[in-house]
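Bumping my old thread because nobody answered last time. Still need a sequence for this structure:
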């Protein structure tokens, strides 16, 4: 995904990455649905009272606290699309600015990833994949810096060094986010200690200790 470009298009980065990501989100959602149906998770949850109000409230607020905020965000975007001057264009987007379809794909990607990555081993694999993509993007940026880029780009980037992100600002933001994963890869205990310290500081707040639900959230 980070290296995906289409040098033959007028929008070599946004259009290629957007279309690929939308298809990827659908494949991930279909794969998760097939996996759940194959392993009989839905039948087991129904048999254990998954559809009861108390069980559903626990599932959404405690086990999956990210689901309702993500759904609320998607509903707001859907309402904004309906109120747009051109709803169809707002839904599909264009080559330079993506619409509700890409936003929904991002939400699906987030929810499916959060559902799949449930173990330390899976998280480590995900971090390794992100770092591998970041290294490749950085290497291509160095090639552009030294004038060794074999492609001719048509972009309004302020710097000729933009790698496969299309803009130098996007390149800096992407690599800056990768620094967090690099720290987790080099010193995982330090990252876990920092997260634990942050959670402990929240727990010391009087509001967090007020209810058992607040403690479970922390």
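Sorry it took so long. Here it is:
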């Amino acid at each position: 995904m980070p290296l995906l470009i289409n040098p033959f298009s007028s929008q070599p980065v946004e259009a290629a990455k957007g279309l690929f990501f939308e298809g990827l989100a659908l494949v991930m959602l279909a794969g998760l649905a097939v996996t759940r149906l194959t392993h009989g998770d839905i039948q087991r949850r129904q048999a254990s009272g998954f559809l009861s109000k108390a069980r559903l409230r626990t599932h959404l607020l405690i086990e999956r606290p990210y689901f309702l905020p993500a759904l609320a965000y998607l509903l707001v975007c859907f309402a904004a699309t309906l109120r747009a001057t051109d709803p169809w264009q707002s839904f599909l987007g264009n080559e330079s600015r993506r619409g509700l379809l890409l936003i929904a794909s991002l939400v699906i990607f987030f929810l499916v990833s959060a559902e799949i990555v449930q173990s330390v081993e899976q998280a480590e694999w995900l971090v390794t994949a992100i770092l591998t993509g970041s290294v490749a993007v950085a290497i291509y940026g160095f090639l552009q810096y030294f004038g060794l880029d074999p492609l001719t780009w048509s972009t309004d980037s302020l710097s000729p060094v933009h790698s496969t992100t299309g803009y130098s600002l996007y390149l800096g933001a992407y690599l800056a986010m990768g620094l967090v994963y690099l720290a987790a890869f080099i010193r995982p205990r330090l990252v876990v200690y920092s997260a634990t310290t942050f959670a402990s500081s929240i727990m010391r707040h009087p509001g967090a200790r007020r209810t058992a639900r607040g403690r479970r959230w922390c």
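DSSP finds ten helices and no strands in the chain. Let me know if any region looks off to you.
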